[in-house]
C-alpha cells in the first residue's frame, strides 16, 4: 500500500483542519509520520515508557472503532481527546486513523467518550514535569463536531486510498500469475516437443544406422576369428543397449545405474570398432547408482566426445565420467582430452544451432533444456573448454539427490 500517498493526504489534511493526525497499525504503532503533533505530544513520545502508553491508547481506540465499524472517541493517558477511525479492507483490520490530541471546548457533546487517562500508574507521570504541564496548558481547544468531522473525512479518504491500493495490488498479482502460467505452458509445450525429439533421436540420431552397421560388421568378423565368447559379450552389450533405448525412450527418469550401464555398453562397442584409439573410465560410486536421473542424458554427451575428440585422432583419446556429491546435489562430469571447442560453438551447441554434417546437432540442447525444466533454470549444463592444460572439454550436469519424479 502507498504509505507515501497516505502521508501526503494526512499532512495536507492536518494542516487544513488544525488537528494532529497519524495512521497506526493494529498495535497502535505509527505507520505514517505524525502530522501536526504538538510540542507536548512530541516530548511525551520521546520517552519510551510514555510512548508505549500512547501506542496502547491508540490501539485500544482503534479496536474499539473496529467493533463498531466507525470512528471512536477516547481520552488518552495525557487527558487529550482523540478520534480513532478503523481501516478495514476485505474484512481485515489493518489499523486506524488517529485524529485529535486536543482539548474539547465542551465534553457534553462527546457521547460515547472512552476515558483511558487513568488506566496507567501515576508514578513517573508527565504531570511531575513542569515544562510539560506548561506545554499541556497551551494545547488548543477544538469543538467536538469539528474533531468528529475531521476524523470521518480522513477515515473515508484513507479507506478509499487503501482499497484502491489493495485492488491495484490484486490486479498486479493476477497479471503476474497469468504471465507465469503462460510461461509454464510454453515450457511444458517445449518439453513435450523435446521428449518427442528425444524418442526419435534414440532410434535415429543417438543410435544411428551407420553405428548399427559398424556394430553388425564387427560381430560378423568376431564370429569368424574367435571362439564366439567375445561375440557373445558384444551381442549382449548391443542387445542391452537396444533394450534400454526401445523400452526407456518414453520414460522421464531412470536409476543412474541404467544410464551408466547404457554408456558402458556403448563405449564397449565403440572400442571394438576403433580399437585402442581411446581409453575410458567410469567412476560412479555405488551409493549413487539408485539415484533417479533424467533418461538419456549421458550417452549423447559421450557420443559428442567420440565425434569431436576421439574420431579426429589416431590414438591417445580419453573419456572420463565421474560422479560425486555436492551437498544435496549429484554432480556428474564428462571429460575428454580433445582440442576443445570455441566459445561461439559452445553457445551454438547449447542453443541447438550447431551444425554437423548438414543437420542440426540438438542432443546437448535437448539435455540442457530438460535439466532446466525439471530442476530449475540454474541447473543447465555447464561446459568448460579448454578444461585441462589448454585442451579438452568438461561437460557437467547436476540434479538433486532426492526429488519426487511424480511432480513432472
Plain-language structure description:
This protein is an alpha+beta fold and 408 residues long. The chain folds into two domains: 3-165, 2-Layer Sandwich (Beta-Lactamase); 277-400, Histidine kinase-like ATPase, C-terminal domain (Heat Shock Protein 90). The chain is built from eleven helices and 15 strands. Strands 1, 2, 3, 4, 5 and 6 form a six-stranded mixed beta sheet that branches. Strand 3 and strand 4 form a beta hairpin. It is rod-shaped and about 120 Å long.
Brief overview:
A hairpin with a 2-residue loop joins strand 12 and strand 13.
Assess the beta-strand content as a share of residues: 15-25%
Structural class: alpha+beta
CATH topology of the largest domain: the name is: Beta-Lactamase
Give the rounded overall mean pLDDT: 81
CATH class of the largest domain: Alpha Beta
User: What distance separates the N and C termini?
Assistant: 37 Å
Task: Give the radius of gyration.
Answer: 38 Å
Number of strands: 15
Shape: rod-shaped
Can you tell me the residue ranges where pLDDT is under 50 for at least 5 consecutive residues? none
Strand count, sense and closure of the main sheet?
6 strands, mixed
Q: In percent, how helical is the residue content?
A: 40-55%
